[in-house]
Amino acid sequence: MKKTFLFAIALFILTACSSASPEIVGDWKLESYGNAANPTPAISNVDTSIKFDPNGQMSGNVGCNSFGGNYETSGDKITFDSIMSTMMYCDETSAQEQAVLSVFSDNMKLQIQLNGNTATITSPDGASVVNLARK
Fold this sequence. Notes:
By secondary structure, this protein is an alpha+beta fold. The chain has helices at residues 2-17, 94-103, and strands spanning 26-35, 40-41, 49-52, 57-61, 66-74, 77-85, 109-115, 118-122, 128-134.
């Protein structure tokens, strides 16, 4: 009984201290991005992926460059930190990559709205969004 109780307390503390919201954890694909009032659809023939690990690490590719860094969630807020990206020139996808990565700015508290298999990450001023769908 004591061991079960201690295990439950340890699990509670571990869950409470986790930096990742369980809802965001997993693999996502880019659906649209850009102006919140009229988002641009993701380029259809480009396989995009954004992965949020339970340990607060994220990685992905929304064009031809890979990126990764840290993230932390708190309620309906998500903050990215130390985002790094490869820097290959990609004519067809450069606008898409730049728009998405500009929303994932370091140390900005962004709003995140999760609704089942979709997620919307909104810039602090509400002008830009990144819309994701669970893979």
